[in-house]
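2024-03-11 09:14:02 DEBUG pipeline.ingest accepted 1 chain
2024-03-11 09:14:02 DEBUG pipeline.ingest length=230
2024-03-11 09:14:03 DEBUG pipeline.predict start
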Amino acid sequence: MDNKQPVILVVEDDDDIRELVAFSLEEDHVEQAGDGLRGQEMAETMKPDLIILDLMLPGRDGLSVCRELNKHAAESMPCPILMLTARGEEMDRIIGFEYGADDYVVKPFNIRELMLRVRAILRRRSMDTGKRVITRHGVSLDQQGRRVSIDGRTLELTALEYRIFEDFFLNAGRIRTREELLSSVWGYQFEGYERTVDVHIKRLREKLEGVSDKWSLKTVWGVGYKFEVL
């Protein structure tokens, strides 16, 4: 993305919302789709820098589109997806993350908050270019491909789980507060999102259990979390 205009695909069936989002992104190159099937086709053809994807879509729902795009994503750098949803329940958000979404915004949303999240995702993506593979104590971290393997075994991590693991890996031995993780992983801080951090770390811990006894992810009560070599 170096010095070139980011390409953003907005997939939303509500014309007013789609046009508002596109207008707010006027400094970027924006393409639009009004249904899931068309959105998926455009995403596979265009290879955008970011997809803003509604959850409830005609033709094919946003979760299915998200899952298919991540299944067939280029190994070097999967396209980040920002999910729009009218449903704010925690389980809906977790399912979206499990299907590969990088972030979410609940309708009705504040357009400034949406733009903040868009910029955070694009900033992370630009920083991923040129990153390397780091290996320590049997753990291999592919920063560009966003993949983790431990003792030769690849972990099946979502985009968010990878970024959380990367933060812990690069800060091994240090206590990381929830606020630090929000800033590092999500790129912003909002009151009430600490619970989101806990949910993702719980799922990451479940995936790490039984893979290797060389590392531990501990809860430091009242403070945050600590990832360390044993």
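2024-03-11 09:14:41 DEBUG pipeline.report DSSP finds eight helices and twelve strands in the chain.
2024-03-11 09:14:41 DEBUG pipeline.predict end
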